[in-house]
Structure formats: C-alpha cells, structure tokens
C-alpha cells in the first residue's frame, strides 16, 4: 500500500477528527501518502480529493465535527455511482480506502471493495455505539457525557419546580445513550428500543415512585423507543401526572457536537493507527475495533450483519437503583 484515501461518512461524531489525524500521521510514519476525500462518498464520486500531510491535521484532535465534512450520498447506493468512485481512486493512484463512520458507511465500502477490488478498512464512529466488533464506537463516550451534563441541569430545574421531565436522547435503533445516561443521572425510568414499552406499566411505575416522596422525576426516552419519542409519550401520559406539570426536552444534535472526551480521542487515535497497520499487513474488507482493551479485526460483512446488543445486566441494574 503506497497511497490511501480517507473519508468520513454518515452522521458525524466527536473524535472523527482525532481518527483522521491518526490515519494521516501513522501513514506518514509508514511512507504512505494520504488523500482526504471531502463530503464522504459524495466527494468520492465528485472528485473532492485533497492531499494531506502531517501539518494538515495539526490542532484538530480536540475539535468536534469532521474537517473532511460528512454527507449522505444516494448515488453511491447505485452501481454506476460506485464505478465513478472507483475511477477517481484509480486516477489518484489510491490503493486503499479508510472509511470512518457507522454501518451504512461500512455497507457502501464493502460493496465498493467487492465490485472494484479496492482494499477497504472501516473505523467505527457513531454516537449510537451500535456496531459489533468494538466495545465502543468513536463519539459514544462524548455524546454520553454531553447528554449527561444536560440531564443533570434538567434535574436541577425539575427539582426546583417539582416537575416531571421527559428527556429524549438520540439512538435511532439502540438505547445505549438512554440506558447509560439514565444510570449515571439517577433517572426514574429509561425507555429503550430494546424493550417493549407498555404505557400502563410506565404509568404504574411512575406512580409507584412518586408515592415515595420524590419531588421531581426524570424519564429518559431513546428517540427510537416504541412510543416514538418523548413528545408522543407525553401525549399518552400527561393527564395522569397533571400535578407534576410535565415538560419535554429533546436534546437532539447537541449530542453530536463538542470536543471529544479523552477516552474518545485515545480510542480514535488507536483505531486510526490500527487501520493503517492492517492495510499494510494486507487485510481488506475489515473493521478495526477495541475489545477488552485489545485491538480486534472484524470482517465488514460481520460488522454490518447485526446491531450490537445492549447489556441486559445494565438494564437490570438501572431497575434496582432507581
Ligand atoms: O446515527 C447517529 C444519529 O445521531 C442517530 O442517533 C440519529 O437518529 C441520527 O443520527 C440523526 O441523523 P441526522 O443528523 O441525519 O438528523
């Protein structure tokens, strides 16, 4: 491998810049040239290639977002789109591609590799933490802490007014952020896509807890929960809790921004360097991850085959401690 391309795609996550930096710097150490491709697969098709060196990634490790920008590309879902992408890679003499993103990003990379024989390695980066083959994805820890900080603040005002708050956190298909923030914030209840939500049961549990002289109550709702999020849940339960003057707060995209935590920066640095290493070793169609503090290589087809399962022991713990 002499020249690689690197791109970020799908929803951004804090730590993507740290991963780009690690890819570029580890490549420089290995005499590999790097092109950054802007706007993900859109830029791959539309020739948005920029030459990168050690200096292009100075002073970015602490920044949220992605200096390469991110986008979703419908054209890349078509064979003709991927053909254009492969032609551009050839034009720049790029032998291998590192893609930083989630399962949608990996699905595209896997197709490109199979159809055009291009070596690809994936780096898992999404706040949802829904990728198997790594204990955590880049950005998850940062998003968790951003959400937790917001929830702690909501608790202050909820407590002052003795109100009930329904706080919606991100997580399209999985409840990792909802579950861990609910434990860390001492929330009264967490509603997750992984569990069926029985409205009668939700009401019963909240009434039960409110009987214990609680002055405020906080329910963390994953956006992908069965009820369809916090606004819909509020419609269903507000009349039963009228005396608690219910409020809804949707945290939304603030969870995707901000400076990455130390843990995300270290994870991104490890995975960026590992991606270059595995390409040099001749691997392709794989994802790099960290499992039990050791680097792990997972075939992309496995990584995209199913969503990571939530830890049911943590669900039980949340129930014991509320
Ligand atoms: O996949 C990450 C994520 O932030 C999800 O939690 C959320 O459902 C989705 O992206 C939002 O996507 P968009 O930025 O396109 O609104």
Quick structural overview:
By secondary structure, this protein is of the alpha/beta class.
Give the termini distance in whole angstroms.
Answer: 53 Å
Per DSSP E runs of 2 or more residues, the count of β-strands stands at 11
| Helical coverage, percent range | 40-55%
Bound heterogens, unique: 6-O-phosphono-beta-D-fructofuranose
Strand order of the largest sheet: 3-2-1-4-5-10-11
What is the percentage of strand-forming residues? Answer: 15-25%
> What class do helices, strands and sheet pairing give?
alpha/beta
Gross morphology? elongated
Q: Order of SSEs, N→C?
A: EHEHEHEHEHEHEHEHEHEEHH
What can be said about the biggest beta sheet?
7 strands, mixed
Low-confidence stretches: none
In DSSP terms (H or I, runs of 4 or more residues), the helix count works out at: 11
Mean pLDDT: 97
C-alpha Rg (nearest Å): 22 Å
């Amino acid at each position: 491998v002499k020249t690689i391309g690197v791109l970020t795609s799908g929803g951004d996550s804090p730590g993507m810049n740290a991963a780009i930096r690690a890819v570029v710097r580890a490549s420089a150490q290995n005499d590999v040239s790097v092109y950054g491709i802007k706007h993900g697969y859109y830029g791959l098709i539309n020739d948005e290639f920029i030459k990168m060196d050690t200096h292009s990634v100075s002073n970015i490790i602490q920044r949220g977002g992605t200096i390469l920008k991110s986008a979703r590309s419908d054209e890349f879902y078509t064979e003709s789109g991927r053909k254009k992408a492969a032609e551009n890679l050839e034009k720049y003499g790029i032998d291998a591609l590192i893609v930083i993103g989630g399962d949608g990003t990996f699905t595209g990379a896997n197709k490109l590799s199979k159809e055009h024989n291009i070596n690809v390695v994936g780096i898992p980066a999404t706040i949802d933490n829904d990728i198997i083959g790594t204990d955590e994805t880049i950005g998850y820890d940062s998003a968790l802490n951003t959400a937790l900080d917001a929830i702690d603040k909501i608790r202050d005002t909820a407590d002052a007014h003795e109100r009930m708050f329904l706080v919606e956190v991100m997580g399209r298909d999985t409840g990792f952020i909802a579950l861990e923030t609910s434990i860390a914030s001492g929330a009264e209840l967490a509603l997750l896509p992984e569990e069926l939500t029985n409205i009668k049961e939700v009401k019963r549990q909240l009434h039960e807890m409110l009987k214990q002289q609680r002055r405020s109550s906080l329910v963390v709702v994953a956006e992908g929960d069965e009820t369809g999020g916090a606004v819909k849940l509020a419609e269903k339960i507000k009349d039963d809790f009228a005396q608690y003057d219910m409020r809804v707060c949707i945290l939304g995209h603030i969870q995707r921004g901000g400076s990455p935590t130390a843990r995300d920066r270290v994870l991104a640095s490890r995975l960026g360097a590992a991606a270059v290493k595995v390409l040099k070793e001749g691997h392709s169609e794989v994802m790099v991850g960290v499992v039990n503090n050791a680097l792990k290589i997972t075939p992309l087809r496995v990584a995209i085959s199913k969503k990571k399962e939530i830890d049911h022991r943590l669900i039980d713990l949340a129930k014991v401690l509320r």
